[in-house]
Write a structure and sequence with these properties.
The complex is a heterodimer of chains A (283) and B (275). With 283 residues, chain A is mostly helical. Chain A is 76% helix and 0% strand. Chain A has 11 helices and no strands. Chain A starts with a helix and ends in a 9-residue tail after the last helix. In chain B, 37% of the residues lie in helices and 24% in strands. Chain B is built from 12 helices and 10 strands. Chain B has helices at 2-12, 20-23, 71-77, 106-112, 127-137, 144-154, 158-161, 174-186, 204-217, 230-236, 254-259, 264-270; strands spanning 31-42, 45-56, 60-64, 88-96, 99-100, 113-116, 192-196, 222-226, 239-244, 247-253. In chain B, β1 (31-42) and β2 form a beta hairpin. In chain B, α5 (127-137) runs parallel beside α8 (174-186) and α8 (174-186) runs parallel beside α9 (204-217). The chains are: A mainly alpha (283), B alpha/beta (275). Chain A binds chain B through residues 98, 164, 166-177, 180, 184-185, 188-189, 277-281, and chain B through 79, 81, 84, 86, 107-111, 114-115, 117, 119, 121-126, 133-134, 136-138, 168-170, 181, 184-185, 188.
């Protein structure tokens, strides 16, 4: 073997190993986090955690039922607010607009996507919290919904654009109007991608803490209705992790575990949906 | 307007008797569609020049010519599919049963003038739902499953798919998919069926099936087909129009165009000297 060939074989082997190791590291981070959370918080995840209110310092036990419900309520609001705007905006972008308007909207959505979540929080604070002098579930849901708009919009647009043009032509040639074509062919052809996008946007904001600090604030008790400060899992993790009590730390780990498992489940559901129904083959 | 259309047609359809189809004099043939003085532009670029011709009722009319001659463009103006392209613009008149298609509601027009495309483009739905699509969106009152069966029979696909109507359309072969697209177009009972090189993505056996089908379909609708394949035009059509760089060079009964072309350019094309 010539030295040149040996060198090339060495480089090849080295690069292959390196890319493999990097791939392993990328994957193992998730499992490390999961394992870490399970070890530290696993013991605190029990029936009480899902059903009881937090207890005062010094007492053991108690749970985060109010935070779980608070997160659920805010995520529901965020989805109802952010997803329709993102979805219909994407339909406009993908099917109707062209040139400069589309460019501006797309660019603005990308910028909005890049706005730090704390800034979104301040914005929601000045728009919803400050005028009413009230932290609320509503304000938290609004802030999270704002964050869902650009994610839903951009990915839905990509999936709509991915629908092959001959399908549009086929529908139009059968006498379908533009709206009917969109409703009966384009969206059904892209629905799996769109649903995945929505679930990923959901998972993304489910863990947001910063926008909730200014809007939902936090609460040690139940938050009736929509207009009172409410607890949420991410803010609970933040407060409990900073507190100097071992029991609270365990609760924070447990909350982290619950949050992560929730997001994992959503991802798995998204994958499961992707594998059902009739997909448009790639040509 | 209409008065000026007929004389132009009789020039384009010389009454030379060579085949069963052409034995009828053109004047006696009813015209489902008439195109007169059609100019077409993509932006500033003109792609059709002063095209006038008729599409005879219950006949097959084929449009031939080299790539870029405007035959597909001409076809797409007949159900106004050109409007989906930005900057497309036409001048002139196109009549369907004596009425201007440009003045009609475009969705109503497209139900009467159906289209089948170059590549099979079934929807990501079941075989049944593909055929039923046109009926459903138009709120048709006819029983859907009967109409679906009828269309699939017309498209010579029924026997192959009747046991798995609820399977994905993508499980069919390319030729079957194209016949499914024909069935889908037929389901709304169009008066005219436009086919844009329907066999260009198919193997010879599938092509033969579709050609056979076209000849049968004449009984239920009027057919216009764009084809690259001159033998195909000769086999299936009653009339053939030859286009070259946006101009209609010759429009005659098919046997005549292929045996005694009236224009040296037609002769050069059909004998393979260019194109």
């Amino acid at each position: 073997m010539s030295p040149r060939l040996r060198w090339r074989k060495f480089v090849s082997g080295f690069m292959l190993t390196m890319t493999g190791v990097c791939a392993m590291v990328a994957v193992s981070v998730l499992f490390l986090i999961l394992g870490y959370l399970a070890v530290h918080g696993g013991t605190s995840v029990n029936w009480n955690f899902f059903t009881k209110l937090p207890v005062p310092v010094g007492e053991t036990g108690g749970g985060m039922a109010n935070a779980i419900l608070g997160s659920a309520k805010m995520l529901l609001l965020a989805t109802l607010f952010g997803v329709p705007i993102g979805f219909f905006g994407a339909i406009y972008l993908a099917e109707f607009s062209s040139g400069s308007i589309a460019f501006v909207v797309r660019y603005a959505a990308d910028l909005l996507n890049g706005v730090p979540s704390i800034v979104i929080g301040i914005f929601a604070y000045s728009l919803v919290v400050h005028p009413f002098r009230q932290y609320s579930t509503l304000a938290g849901g609004f802030a999270l919904g704002l964050m869902m708009i650009p994610i839903t919009l951009r990915s839905t647009e990509e999936f709509l654009r991915g629908v092959p043009n001959p399908l549009r032509e086929a529908a139009m040639a059968l006498g379908a109007s533009k709206w009917k074509t969109i409703a009966t062919v384009i969206v059904p052809a892209a629905y799996r991608g769109i649903l995945t996008a929505v679930l990923l946007a959901f998972a993304r904001v489910a863990g947001e803490t910063a926008p909730l600090l200014f809007t939902a604030l936090g609460n040690q008790f139940w938050s009736p209705g929509w207009t009172h400060p409410t607890a949420s899992l991410p803010v609970m993790i933040y407060t409990y992790a900073l507190a100097p009590y071992d029991d609270w730390h365990r609760q924070a780990w447990a909350a982290g575990l619950v949050l992560l498992v929730l997001i994992l489940v959503i991802n798995i559901v998204a994958r499961a949906i992707l594998s059902r129904g009739i997909a448009v083959p790639r040509s | 307007m209409q008065a000026s259309v007929r004389p132009a047609l009789s020039v384009n359809l010389p009454p030379i008797v060579t085949s069963a189809a052409a034995r009828e004099t053109p004047e006696a043939l009813a015209m489902r569609m008439t195109i007169s003085k059609l100019d077409f532009f993509y932006g500033a670029k003109q792609t059709l020049f002063d095209v006038s011709m008729g599409i005879a009722t219950n006949k097959v009319t084929s449009l031939i010519g080299p790539s870029g001659c405007g035959k597909s463009t001409l076809l797409r103006t007949l159900n106004r599919m050109h409007e989906t392209v930005r900057g497309a613009q036409l001048r002139g008149e196109i009549l369907l049963d004596g009425q201007s298609i440009l003045a009609q509601d475009v969705t109503a027009l497209r139900r009467r003038v159906g289209m089948v495309f170059q590549r099979p483009n079934p929807f990501p739905k079941s075989i049944f739902d593909n055929v039923a699509y046109g009926l459903r969106i138009n709120g048709s009152k006819v029983p859907i499953s009967e109409a679906v069966e009828k269309s699939l029979r017309h498209a010579a696909l029924w026997d192959e798919v009747k046991d798995h109507l609820h399977k994905s359309a993508y499980e069919l072969s390319g030729g079957q998919q194209q016949r499914l697209c024909i069935a889908r177009a037929l389901a709304v009972e169009p008066e005219v069926l436009l086919l844009d090189e329907p066999c260009s993505a198919l193997d010879p056996i599938s092509t033969a099936k579709i050609e056979e089908l076209l000849v049968q379909l004449k009984d239920i609708c009027t057919i216009t087909i764009v084809t690259h394949n001159m033998q195909q035009a000769a086999r299936v059509s009653d009339f053939t129009a030859f286009l070259l760089v946006g101009q209609l060079i010759e429009f005659s009964p098919t046997p005549q165009l292929f045996t005694t072309p009236g224009d040296p350019r037609t002769e050069a094309y059909i004998t393979g000297r260019f194109g």
